[in-house]
Amino acid sequence: MDLGIKGKRALVCASSKGLGLGCARALAEAGVDLVMNARGAEALEASAQAIRDDFGVEVTTVACDVTTPEGQEKVISAAQGVDILVTNAGGPPPGKWTDWDREDFIKALDANMLTPIAFIKALVPGMMERGWGRVVNITSQSVKAPIPVLGLSNSARAGLTGYVAGTARQVAGKGVNINNLQPGIHATDRADSLDKGVSEAQSISLDEARAQRAATIPAGRYGTAEEFGATCAFLCSQHAGFIVGQNILLDGGAINATM
Ligand code: NAP
């Protein structure tokens, strides 16, 4: 399917690896030029070069921490005029509800709620002026069904989802569509580190921890960054113009719910 976005320009935050990289590659395959970001310059540049080689699109890299005001300033200045924004950052660490103090919450809110909001506020007005735009926020299945050890993530991402629900409906009339993608377990470094936590907590091997977690998914496996990226590219396509303020769950059926 032709996504109809060849020649557009996208910012994909936190995209040297994992789900962000899946989104960047799928958009590049559709002919979209990119601004990519991550903290580690080496992995970022390697992923950017692979995209240039594979898809022939233009890729600008900005190596910085996207959750800091300085990082946001750098990325936003490189991304002026983008048509597509994919927000993403690392997820907060797991723990127990009694562990987290104010500082932990502020950090999680900064990374997974206030950072995407800062990017939306900076880049969506230009999209509205130009009459076309797409924003996809990478959130989590934890918005729909809480993951007890990820209370910081549950809280911050639910806050972002509330903001998007109202904002998406205020900008849709100007051709700008904002939606959230909710990943369930996907095979990335983040999943590896959560598998490791399970393996240590239960004194089982990493393979056993992985099998245990995969068994909770009706599809019987973890999702892939490629599948995730393809869904993101569709949401950024010309065909997704009537999808407004939605939360699209990609979890292999893990959340047992009718809707
Ligand atoms: P990942 O494989 O660990 O990749 C994270 C990417 O983000 C890397 O490119 C990393 O590069 C970059 N990054 C992390 N923190 C950053 C920061 N502060 N500033 C700029 N770049 C940053 O993670 P993932 O699995 O793709 O997860 C992406 C998001 O989805 C996370 O918020 C995660 O919590 C959420 N999620 C993931 C899953 C899953 O199963 N994978 C499920 C639900 C939700 P650097 O380290 O070099 O910065």
From TrEMBL:
InterPro entries: NAD(P)-bd_dom_sf, SDR, SDR_fam. Transmembrane segments: none annotated. It comes from the Bacteria. Belongs to the short-chain dehydrogenases/reductases (SDR) family. PANTHER family: 3-OXOACYL-(ACYL-CARRIER-PROTEIN) REDUCTASE, NADPH-DEPENDENT REDUCTASE BACG. This is Short-chain dehydrogenase. It comes from Roseovarius atlanticus.
